[in-house]
Structures are given as structure tokens and as C-alpha cells.
Amino acid sequence: MTFLVYIFSFLALISIIVFIHELGHFSFARLFGVRVLDFSIGFGKSIKSWETKSKTVFNLRLLPFGGYVKMNGEEISDKSQSDDSYASKKYYQKLLITLGGPIFNFILAIVIFFTINLFGIYKIMPIVGDVLPNSIAYKQGIEKGDLISKIDGTKISSFSDAQLALSKRLGESGDLEIEILRNENSFEFYLSINNWLSSKEPSNLLYELGIFPPLEPIIGSVMEASPAAEGGIKPGDKILEISNKPITYWGDIRKEINKSKGNEILVKILRGNEINTLGIKPNLSENTFNWQIGVSSSYELSDKARVLEKYSLKDSLKNSISQTYSVIENSITFISKIIFGQVSTKNLGGPVMIGQYAGESVIYGGFYSFFYLTALISISLGIVNLFPLPVLDGGQALILTIEKIIGRDIPVRILEFFYRLGTAFLIFLFVFVFFNDIFRILS
């Protein structure tokens, strides 16, 4: 059942984004009077097709990895000058038709962000729920309960803001400035980084610093033959108290266990509707020299850290444009760092990773997370399509601009050569990210 959720979530996400992208090309083509011959979602054999009065054939095809809009006079060998031909249109009209796909992808993101902001968005307050012992944050003195207010001078109001601010420093060296509020007092910490995460794929940037959000004190797993296993603790148990001290967040568990100094502790747990108290004697970790009982978190975010924020029409529009711009800016920075070797190519993902994220967004986050992810992927597709490769929209726009500057068409044989080169590069890139996805899953 879960596998089917992943598959259908992926198909829904890709279909929405591709449809909007091709709708952009279609809309500008019709605006300027260009006849569209074929509007296809997917590639390969047609599953369903229908024809409109304007003689456009709409196709739903077998392979859902993309789509296309075929226009009259679009082929490089077809220079038809009829009124409904693409080739007959002015430079700015052809440019807008070509860039219509990415433009609509960015508009889709703005619409989704606008809707989310208007109806309410749950933000995870940037409260430090726990700090991993011996981590970079731990060594600098950041503590559980601290509220992150700024990172490198950027105001932080949620964990998402923090992730976005940290992503700008991937592959860089120097000091990472984190400002926190502690008991209404402000403190600044400078975390030294050197080619930060340049050779690995980070799962979560805050986790890499040793900072965890407020997590529910719910057991995710129990190590075999550990004190917790011998004491009767099971996955799914919620820890309410340790030695009569109330437990609010997961970080409280480690704090109270360390206080025991190896003496037996009384752990009050909630299992289903039953409350039980178990006696457990911690042992000393040989790696961290901390007392432990052999459990790990379920990584379920605490409801106490969630805040529902709603915005007015004006603020929703302002925030949606700002959010879209920030994601575009960060995406371009991230891509440039991959190109120049500052960040590992392991971070590149393809259809398998998109499918995984799409499925997880539905299973764990519901429709809000799914549409938020749709906005992010839509922006990514828009940016990738602006790459200056002849088979992509950005390459088409570049060709149009060059021809405008030199005042004549580029010879067909030269265009065909670069088309083949661009196609070969895209095939290589697709295979590369596909295997990246497979290795990511296997590891």
C-alpha cells in the first residue's frame, strides 16, 4: 500500500508540474496566434487523446517523465511564414513562447505559496530541542532551549528559515554566525567550518551542526540486549517521566539519564492507553562517555513547537513572491557550487528521489507538504529548463538571441550538431542522477 502511495504521489506531482510547464508554452503560443499541433503530457505511446476545434491534439502518453508542445513552423528545417506559424513571429514573441514554460513554473510556485500563506502555514519554531554531545554546536556552547534568532545576519523565524540560511554556506569555509536568545538575553556563537559538507550528502543541515528540533519523547527503536530492552521498553512508547522529573522533549531524556551516573532510574512510559513505570540501569557509552539506555528517537516533531501562522491577502502575496525568489536564488547558488566542485554531486537527485519525497510528503505531512514540495520541484524544473542547452528552453532562447544579434539564421547542420550534443548530455545526466538515487537508497 505504501509503495502505491509513493507511485501515485510521484505521478501526481510530475503531472501537475509538467502540465503547467507545457501550458505556459501553449498559452503564449495561442496569445500570439501560433497554431499548436500537439500538446502532450509524457512521452511514448498515446494512452488518451482528443482534438479541439482549433485542431490541437491533446495527448496523455505512457511515460510520465516530461511533455512537449509541438507548434506549426517550430522545426529548425520548417521556416513557414504563414500567419499561424511560430517561425513567422517577432523575436520577443518567440522568446516569450520559448520561456513560457519556466515562467508558468515560477507562477505555479507563487500560487501555491500564496495559498499556503493565506490559509495558514504550520511553522516549526527554531527552538533547540537537543544538542548532540561533542558536535560543533555543543562545543561552542549552544544549549537545549535556545531560540535561534539569526544566522549570518538573516532573521530566522522557523526551522525552514534556518535550513535555507545554512544552505548558502555549503562548501564554504570560515565562521558561521548563529545568534540565539536564552532567557531573554541575546548571545552570538561563531562555528568554524572548513569546506563544509563539500564531500558528502547532508540529510539535514541543522543535524550536521548537532542541533535537533524539539522532538516528542517517543521511542523509535530499541537496541538488542540494551538496558532499555532488558527493562521492557518498546518502540512507540512515550516517556513521561524519568525519576519523577517530567519529560517534555527528547533532549530531556538524555539529560536525565546522564544525571543518573549509572544508578537505576525509574522510567514512566505511556504505551497505548496504559501508563507503566520501569526500572532501568544505564550503561556508559564507550564512544561518547555518556550514560545511555540504548534507545533512539522516532523523530516526531513536538506539537508544542508548531505554530500556525496566517497572513492577509497583501502579506500572502508579498511572502509568496519573496519565498519563490529565495528558493530560486538558493537553487542557482547551489547549482553553481556543484558545477565548481564546492558541493558533492551526491546531492543531485532524479525521479526516484522525487518519488520518495513526494510519497513521504503525503504519508507524513499530508496535502500541505505535498503541495509545498510541488512548488519547490516546479521552481527546480523552471531553473533547469533555463540551462543554455539547445534541447532546453534556455538553449532555445539563446539561439533566438544569437540569431537576432547576427541578423540571420544559424545553419541547420550546426544546430543539429548542438542538439545531438545537448541530448547526449541530458541522457548522461539522467542516468547519473538515477544511479545517485539508487545508491542513496542502498546506503
Explain what this protein looks like in three dimensions.
The mean pLDDT is 87. This protein has 443 residues and is α+β, with helices and mostly antiparallel strands. Strand 7 (174-182) and strand 8 form a beta hairpin. The protein has helices at residues 2-31, 91-119, 136-140, 159-167, 205-209, 227-231, 250-259, 313-339, 351-384, 393-406, 412-442; strands at 36-51, 57-71, 121-124, 130-131, 147-151, 154-155, 174-182, 185-193, 211-212, 219-222, 238-242, 245-246, 265-271, 274-280, 283-284, 291-292, 295-297, 306-309.
The major beta sheet can be summarized as: 4 strands, antiparallel
Question: Largest sheet, order of strands side by side?
Answer: 6-5-7-8
How many β strands by DSSP?
Answer: 18
Stretches where pLDDT is under 50 for at least 5 consecutive residues are none
Helix content: 40-55%
Count of domains: 3
Provide the succession of SSEs: HEEHEEHEEHEEHEEHEEHEEEEEEHHHH
Strand content: 15-25%
Q: Counting H and I runs of at least 4 residues, what is the number of helices?
A: 11
Which structural category do the helix and sheet elements fall into?
alpha+beta
Mean pLDDT: 87
Coarse shape: elongated
Termini separation comes to 23 Å
Q: What Rg is obtained from the alpha carbons, in whole angstroms?
A: 27 Å
